[in-house]
Amino acid sequence: MISNLAQGVQAFTSNVFLVTGERTVVVDPGSGFDVVEKIEARTDDLDAIVLTHTHPDHVGNVTAVKNAFDVDVWGYDPESPFVDHAIEDEASVKIGDDSYTALHTPGHKNDHLCFYSKGARTLFAGDLVFQNGSFGRTDLPEGDREILIRSIERLIATVDPDLDVMHVGHGPSITSNPYDDIELSARMARMTG
Protein backbone atom coordinates (compact mmCIF):
# COMPACT_ATOMS: atom_id res chain seq x y z
CA MET A 1 0.00 0.00 0.00
CA ILE A 2 1.42 3.40 -1.02
CA SER A 3 0.03 6.61 0.51
CA ASN A 4 1.12 10.20 -0.13
CA LEU A 5 1.17 11.72 3.36
CA ALA A 6 1.75 15.24 1.98
CA GLN A 7 -1.51 15.28 0.05
CA GLY A 8 -3.41 18.43 0.97
CA VAL A 9 -0.53 19.90 3.02
CA GLN A 10 -0.08 23.64 2.39
CA ALA A 11 3.59 23.83 3.49
CA PHE A 12 6.47 23.83 1.00
CA THR A 13 7.27 20.15 0.99
CA SER A 14 7.95 17.24 -1.28
CA ASN A 15 5.51 14.39 -1.61
CA VAL A 16 5.95 11.88 1.23
CA PHE A 17 5.25 8.27 0.33
CA LEU A 18 4.49 5.79 3.10
CA VAL A 19 4.86 2.27 1.70
CA THR A 20 3.51 -0.37 4.06
CA GLY A 21 4.20 -4.08 3.84
CA GLU A 22 7.02 -6.46 4.65
CA ARG A 23 9.42 -3.50 5.02
CA THR A 24 7.46 -0.35 5.86
CA VAL A 25 9.32 2.63 4.47
CA VAL A 26 8.91 6.37 4.08
CA VAL A 27 10.25 7.58 0.75
CA ASP A 28 11.27 11.22 1.40
CA PRO A 29 9.84 12.47 4.72
CA GLY A 30 9.21 15.97 3.37
CA SER A 31 9.40 19.24 5.28
CA GLY A 32 7.36 21.84 7.14
CA PHE A 33 4.51 19.73 8.54
CA ASP A 34 3.93 17.07 11.21
CA VAL A 35 4.57 13.94 9.19
CA VAL A 36 5.10 11.84 12.34
CA GLU A 37 1.43 12.21 13.28
CA LYS A 38 0.43 11.17 9.75
CA ILE A 39 2.69 8.10 9.86
CA GLU A 40 1.40 7.10 13.32
CA ALA A 41 -2.19 7.31 12.04
CA ARG A 42 -1.39 4.59 9.49
CA THR A 43 1.19 2.31 11.07
CA ASP A 44 2.79 1.47 14.41
CA ASP A 45 6.01 0.28 12.88
CA LEU A 46 8.38 2.00 10.47
CA ASP A 47 11.47 0.15 9.25
CA ALA A 48 13.42 2.80 7.32
CA ILE A 49 13.55 6.15 5.57
CA VAL A 50 14.66 6.07 1.93
CA LEU A 51 15.69 9.30 0.20
CA THR A 52 15.51 10.17 -3.47
CA HIS A 53 17.81 13.14 -2.72
CA THR A 54 18.69 15.60 0.02
CA HIS A 55 17.13 18.92 -1.01
CA PRO A 56 15.61 20.62 2.09
CA ASP A 57 11.98 20.10 1.02
CA HIS A 58 12.60 16.33 0.92
CA VAL A 59 14.61 15.95 4.16
CA GLY A 60 13.34 18.63 6.57
CA ASN A 61 11.39 16.05 8.58
CA VAL A 62 14.20 13.44 8.71
CA THR A 63 15.20 14.12 12.34
CA ALA A 64 11.61 14.07 13.61
CA VAL A 65 10.88 10.74 11.90
CA LYS A 66 14.20 9.20 13.01
CA ASN A 67 13.54 10.22 16.62
CA ALA A 68 9.91 9.09 16.66
CA PHE A 69 10.49 5.66 15.10
CA ASP A 70 14.19 4.97 15.82
CA VAL A 71 14.93 4.20 12.17
CA ASP A 72 17.93 4.69 9.90
CA VAL A 73 18.06 6.71 6.71
CA TRP A 74 19.18 5.26 3.39
CA GLY A 75 20.36 7.42 0.50
CA TYR A 76 23.03 7.74 -2.16
CA ASP A 77 25.63 9.88 -0.39
CA PRO A 78 26.95 8.51 2.93
CA GLU A 79 28.80 11.82 3.45
CA SER A 80 25.46 13.62 3.78
CA PRO A 81 24.47 14.40 7.38
CA PHE A 82 21.02 13.01 6.57
CA VAL A 83 22.20 9.58 5.37
CA ASP A 84 23.10 6.69 7.68
CA HIS A 85 23.60 4.04 4.99
CA ALA A 86 24.58 4.32 1.34
CA ILE A 87 22.47 2.93 -1.48
CA GLU A 88 24.73 2.20 -4.43
CA ASP A 89 23.71 2.55 -8.05
CA GLU A 90 21.74 -0.53 -9.19
CA ALA A 91 21.44 -1.85 -5.62
CA SER A 92 18.29 -3.73 -4.72
CA VAL A 93 16.14 -1.99 -2.10
CA LYS A 94 13.13 -3.55 -0.37
CA ILE A 95 10.27 -1.04 -0.20
CA GLY A 96 6.99 -2.40 1.11
CA ASP A 97 6.55 -5.88 -0.33
CA ASP A 98 8.56 -5.29 -3.49
CA SER A 99 12.17 -5.14 -4.57
CA TYR A 100 13.25 -1.91 -6.28
CA THR A 101 16.41 -1.16 -8.24
CA ALA A 102 18.11 2.08 -7.23
CA LEU A 103 19.15 4.17 -10.23
CA HIS A 104 21.64 6.99 -9.69
CA THR A 105 20.11 9.81 -11.73
CA PRO A 106 21.98 13.09 -11.15
CA GLY A 107 21.29 16.36 -12.96
CA HIS A 108 18.80 17.85 -10.49
CA LYS A 109 21.12 17.03 -7.57
CA ASN A 110 24.28 14.90 -7.46
CA ASP A 111 22.85 12.38 -4.97
CA HIS A 112 19.54 11.83 -6.79
CA LEU A 113 18.12 8.30 -6.96
CA CYS A 114 15.07 6.83 -8.66
CA PHE A 115 13.64 3.51 -7.46
CA TYR A 116 12.13 1.14 -10.03
CA SER A 117 10.33 -2.16 -9.46
CA LYS A 118 9.85 -4.16 -12.63
CA GLY A 119 7.66 -6.66 -10.74
CA ALA A 120 5.41 -4.01 -9.19
CA ARG A 121 5.56 -1.88 -12.38
CA THR A 122 6.19 1.13 -10.12
CA LEU A 123 8.70 3.98 -10.20
CA PHE A 124 9.62 6.51 -7.53
CA ALA A 125 11.03 9.27 -9.73
CA GLY A 126 11.89 11.90 -7.10
CA ASP A 127 12.49 15.25 -8.79
CA LEU A 128 13.92 13.86 -12.04
CA VAL A 129 10.68 13.87 -14.05
CA PHE A 130 7.09 14.93 -13.45
CA GLN A 131 3.70 14.87 -15.13
CA ASN A 132 3.19 16.30 -18.62
CA GLY A 133 6.87 16.51 -19.58
CA SER A 134 8.08 18.58 -16.65
CA PHE A 135 11.51 17.78 -15.24
CA GLY A 136 13.72 18.69 -12.30
CA ARG A 137 15.20 22.14 -11.98
CA THR A 138 18.82 22.51 -13.05
CA ASP A 139 19.37 26.10 -11.82
CA LEU A 140 20.14 25.04 -8.23
CA PRO A 141 23.60 24.02 -6.95
CA GLU A 142 24.64 20.67 -8.50
CA GLY A 143 22.04 21.09 -11.25
CA ASP A 144 23.21 20.28 -14.79
CA ARG A 145 20.89 20.08 -17.80
CA GLU A 146 23.08 17.73 -19.90
CA ILE A 147 23.52 15.32 -16.99
CA LEU A 148 19.77 15.50 -16.26
CA ILE A 149 18.99 14.59 -19.88
CA ARG A 150 21.35 11.59 -19.67
CA SER A 151 19.62 10.51 -16.43
CA ILE A 152 16.18 10.72 -18.06
CA GLU A 153 17.49 8.74 -21.03
CA ARG A 154 18.78 6.09 -18.63
CA LEU A 155 15.30 5.90 -17.11
CA ILE A 156 13.74 5.45 -20.56
CA ALA A 157 16.20 2.63 -21.31
CA THR A 158 15.57 0.90 -17.95
CA VAL A 159 11.85 1.22 -17.30
CA ASP A 160 9.37 -0.99 -19.15
CA PRO A 161 6.87 0.89 -21.32
CA ASP A 162 4.06 -0.93 -19.45
CA LEU A 163 4.90 0.95 -16.23
CA ASP A 164 1.71 1.24 -14.13
CA VAL A 165 2.47 4.14 -11.82
CA MET A 166 5.10 6.83 -11.36
CA HIS A 167 5.31 8.53 -7.97
CA VAL A 168 6.98 11.93 -8.30
CA GLY A 169 8.50 14.37 -5.81
CA HIS A 170 5.90 17.06 -6.44
CA GLY A 171 2.42 16.99 -7.92
CA PRO A 172 0.18 14.02 -8.57
CA SER A 173 1.34 10.47 -9.14
CA ILE A 174 0.92 9.42 -12.77
CA THR A 175 -1.26 6.34 -13.26
CA SER A 176 -2.12 6.68 -16.95
CA ASN A 177 0.76 5.77 -19.30
CA PRO A 178 3.54 7.18 -17.08
CA TYR A 179 6.21 5.99 -19.53
CA ASP A 180 4.86 8.55 -22.02
CA ASP A 181 5.47 11.30 -19.44
CA ILE A 182 9.10 10.17 -19.04
CA GLU A 183 9.64 10.29 -22.81
CA LEU A 184 7.99 13.71 -22.98
CA SER A 185 10.22 14.98 -20.15
CA ALA A 186 13.29 13.92 -22.14
CA ARG A 187 12.04 15.77 -25.23
CA MET A 188 11.18 18.90 -23.22
CA ALA A 189 14.55 18.91 -21.42
CA ARG A 190 16.37 18.70 -24.79
CA MET A 191 14.23 21.47 -26.30
CA THR A 192 14.57 23.96 -23.47
CA GLY A 193 18.26 23.27 -22.78
Q: Could you please describe the fold and organization of this structure?
A:
The chain is of the alpha/beta class and 193 residues long. The protein has one domain (2-192): Metallo-beta-lactamase, Chain A. It is 24% helix and 22% strand. The protein has helices spanning 35-40, 56-59, 62-69, 145-158, 178-192; strands at residues 2-4, 17-19, 25-27, 48-50, 72-75, 85-86, 92-95, 98-104, 113-117, 122-126, 165-168. It has a 6-stranded mixed sheet, with helices on one face. The longest helix has 15 residues, at 178-192. It is globular. It starts with a strand and ends with a helix.
Entry summary:
The chain has 193 residues and is an alpha/beta fold. Helix content is 24%, strand content 22%.
Supply the key terms.
single chain; 6-stranded mixed beta sheet; alpha/beta; 24% helix; 193 residues; 22% strand; Metallo-beta-lactamase, Chain A; 5 helices; globular
Give a topology summary.
Layout: E1 2-4, E2 17-19, E3 25-27, H1 35-40, E4 48-50, H2 56-59, H3 62-69, E5 72-75, E6 85-86, E7 92-95, E8 98-104, E9 113-117, E10 122-126, H4 145-158, E11 165-168, H5 178-192
Parallel strand pairs: 3-4, 4-5, 5-6, 10-11
Antiparallel strand pairs: 1-2, 2-3, 7-8, 8-9, 9-10
- Class inferred from helices and paired strands: alpha/beta
What order do the helices and strands follow? EEEHEHHEEEEEEHEH
Number of strands: 11
Q: What would you call the shape?
A: globular
The number of distinct structural domains comes to: 1
Q: What's the CATH architecture name?
A: 4-Layer Sandwich
- According to CATH, the fold-level topology is Metallo-beta-lactamase, Chain A
Q: Could you give a short account of the major beta sheet? A: 6 strands, mixed
| CATH homologous superfamily label | Ribonuclease Z/Hydroxyacylglutathione hydrolase-like
What is the number of helices?
Answer: 5
